[in-house]
């Protein structure tokens, strides 16, 4: 089994099922004791902002704020640098515990020994 799971979610409200799947897998992995790094890119970048996850709705899925809180409590959440810049999101804007980092950090995490990476 991998020691760490890196998940890159590119979808937000534009593709709710893909988005929910990524957050669900991340939260379940954290609950299972797996080290998780969740990357918010593309339209999922908005969920780094306070209150935005509460606006997300998908029938028969766990509430996105609960999934995000679970990952923040037991893993790490990173907002893509370029995605943040394109949306005028700064470090002062994001939820506590969310960091902003770029492709170099993602590649380093994804390529480390004992890591599995998923993209949604």
Automatic annotation (TrEMBL):
Origin: domain of life: Bacteria
InterPro entries, per database record: DsrEFH-like (IPR027396), Sulphur_relay_DsrE/F-like (IPR003787)
The organism's taxonomic lineage, starting at the top: Bacteria, Bacillati, Actinomycetota, Actinomycetes, Kitasatosporales
Any Pfam family matching the protein: DsrE
Protein name: Putative peroxiredoxin
Organism: Allostreptomyces psammosilenae
